Amino acid sequence: MIPIHCYSKGVLHSEEGEVVQEFPVPLVVNGREIATLVASPHELNYLVAGFLRLQGFVTSPDDFELFSVCKDFGAANVRIKGTLPDKLKPVLTSGCGTGVTFSTPRPIQIDQKKEFTPAEVFSLMEELGKHSEKYRAHGGIHSAAVGDNDRMVLYAEDLGRHNTLDRIAGEALFKGIDLNGLMLVTSGRISTEMAAKSAQLGISLIASRTSPTDMAVKLCEESGITLIGYLRAATFQIYSHPERIRLPDKKIEGVTGVILAGGRSSRMGRDKSLLPYNDRPLIETIYNSLSGLFNDIVVVTDRPHEYGFLPCPKIPDILPGQGSLAGVHAGLTWSRDERIFVAACDMPHLDRELIRWLSGVSSAAPALVPESDGGIEPLHAFYTKAALPAIEAALTSARPKIIDLLAQIGAQIVPAAEVARHSQGFRSFMNLNTPEDYRNLLG
User: Which residue in 107, 113, 145 sits closest to 126, CA to CA?
Assistant: First the structure.
């Protein structure tokens, strides 16, 4: 039994459990060590005999002059009547249970400072599944991917689970991609050599849909790798270094997240909210950021059918054709909470910690608006229902401007110098307006 940390519904709890045993057996035949068999530790005599039979070295029990298999010492010593070839040429098979290494896996200490949230682990595994469905025309294939906190970096598939990691390592080598500190997700079991290869690459976290082996757990513990198994739906089990999993903070109470998706995207030339970003529509990135902060999310749009992939309500402007202020009005009117946080649909780098900090700034004003080096940011701001009468009045005037409204209602502006202490380079406010902006984002 080993300690296991189980994650479910935002909570980690400890329990004890068992993992599959992995047992290396050096095989000596006629005084020569010809292989190390890595297997389950039961009935090793059958394993050794069957291996030699299927390699064509024996055909009956009479071919054995000595047959000694000792589980306690983890060794098999066999003498057969026939002779072994002078040179044994290994064939690297594709089977998912076979990996090839030229030395005994040893722990390699990796950086232990990297942290990941459960949402990031689930997201990368989900991306692995999407790629598998997209590229695979048949079953029986293993897949693996490496990624950082918000995107997949490399993907590979092969008949053998070990080969997928070798393919990723090779592609990273040729493309000059540093895998240090990344996550690895895989469809197959994590065994010792998979863990050892990951440590060589500097992988910080390994996650699988199935269980690891006991030797993989031990090697990951010694190397500083977080090892996750049985990753299903919204649960998983952690077998080593649970401290790298950063549990989500409590959501901000009394605030609804509002995503404005009603713009015409005229300068971009196509709908900004649906631009591909990290293999998903851009607005999905916005939604994922806000869903980690607020219990309720709503998208304000006149095209709800285009956002069916988002698991939240979609509402139209109550007073259409009045720009972003109409979106703020619709969000405030719909919200059950007294306050809303408004974000435009083209902000790919929303900073949760900045938003959380802003939510705690003491203010009695109808709106709380941060300032960046480019001016105030009304589409990355908090509004209260106290602002509704002024907003409705403004919407009945000709071409209402949100900047004018903020001055009229006495919005509290958080100075750029203060914001900068919580948002380096004001990255959270970056938005996309032109094709050049989008190319820079991808690039």
Answer: 145
For Cα atoms 118, 295, 366, give the angle at the middle one, nearest 5 degrees. 130
5-14, 130-139, 296-305, 372-381: the lowest-pLDDT one: 130-139
Q: Which two tokens stand for residue 372?
A: 């960046």
CA distances from 339 to 253, 287, 298, 429 (A): 10, 18, 13, 20
What residues are annotated to the active site? 96
The per-residue pLDDT for range 188-246, each reduced to its tens digit, is: 889 888 898 899 899 999 999 998 999 899 999 999 999 999 998 789 999 999 999 98
Residue of higher predicted confidence among 149 and 46: 46
Each domain of the chain, given as residue ranges in start order, spans: 107-244, 252-442
**Model confidence, pTM:** 0.59
Report residue 311 as tokens. 């698991």
Describe the crossing of helices 324-334 and 388-395 by its angle, rounded to 10 degrees: 140
> In this structure, which amino acid lies at residue 83?
T
- The answer regarding whether domain 107-244 maps to CATH 3.40.140.10 reads yes
Calpha distance 147→122 (Å, rounded): 12
Q: How far is CA 250 from each of CA 10, 66, 288, 421, rounded to the nearest angstrom?
A: 9, 65, 15, 23
| Token pair listed for 127 | 């991306």
Task: Give CA separation, 411 vs 3, 112, 381, 407, in Å.
Answer: 53, 44, 10, 6
Q: Where are the alpha helices (DSSP H) in 224-292?
A: 282-291
Give the Cα-Cα-Cα angle 111, 115, 117 (nearest 5 degrees): 155
**Cα separations in angstroms, 118 against 19, 115, 122, 199:** 22, 10, 6, 21
Under CATH, which number does the domain 252-442 receive?
A: 3.90.550.10
The count of other CB atoms within 10 Å of the CB of residue 274 is: 17
In 10 A of CB 437, how many CB atoms? 15
Q: What's the pLDDT at 101?
A: 46
| Residue 377 or residue 399, greater confidence | 377
At position 135, the amino acid (one-letter code) is Y
Question: Which of 30-39, 98-107, 252-261 is predicted most confidently?
Answer: 252-261
Residue 364 predicted with pLDDT over 70 = yes
> For residues 77 and 192, what is the distance between their CA atoms, to the nearest angstrom?
23
* DSSP letter string, 413-424: EE-HHHHHTTSG
The phi and psi torsions of 399 (rounded to 5 degrees) equal: 45, 70
